[in-house]
Description:
This protein is mainly α.
Amino acid sequence: MISRRLLRIKVLKALYAHLKxxxxxxxxxxxxxxxxxxxxxxxxxxxxxxxxxxxxYAEQRQQVAMQKRLPTYEDLNPNRKFVENxxxxxxxxxxxxxxxxxxxxxxxxxxxxxxKTLFTQLEQSEYYQKYMASPExxxxxxxxxxxxxxxxxxxxxxxxxxxxxxxSILWNDDLGFALVMVTRTLSNMxxxxxxVKVLPKFKSEDDLEYAKELFEKSAINFDRNLxxxxxxxxxxxxxxxxxxxxxxxxxxMTELMSFPSIPVKVTLDEYIExxxxxxxxxxxxxxxxxxxxxxxxxxxEGLINKSGRGLI
Length: 312
């Protein structure tokens, strides 16, 4: 499922694009935000189906080898352990996966070179060779192989990154999140299952409304909240602060005031962590100090009102 952290990142990117474009249509920018969130869920299914394509390519290679004019014994008697992997078969035959892929027109059909490259990487890996050499045939071993593939072969693949960029500009930076969703799905699989239990898009039905409200309020009140931040950074020229830093601080401030059930500590920790990856090297320390002062001011003015868990 799409985490609140990823939703925060999506909101920050949408706000950045909205302000940089000087668009007057908040509705259009919000629509782009929702589309971006939907595309992340698409990527989850796209990545989940990738191992099926790799196994299918492996099987095609075996079939071609059998049709050689002078096939070897190995050509005629290939090791089919990977192509018959029970976890791969479960994904390949899954109605929940295939129906979603078809409804969203998702496919790897245009990228045979990527599939070939990923299989070559997999084939050369020590864990794959150990798997293929083992006489064991169990769901546990099959699951370990597939999990190792998603853990070791994909996040640092430049070719995969290029293909994803070609498929959708909205998948930029989403691969790591999608892979976490895939590995979580794999960890929930059992030999007794007849279909893949795919993750829901959101943990809570309120998550999409949270993202939309956070974006809307951050955009509408951006100048006002930036002015509040400027008051607690008197020794800084706010115009010289990195633009993304300002967006992070304004969005954090909006969340502090607008969502009573989210604890102050959760909001601060989340945006400080996000700043480590999406702004300058020193941004997290700077943002941490500014937000601490912002919280003190907002508390004095009675603008932070938490309820339930938010009181902690």
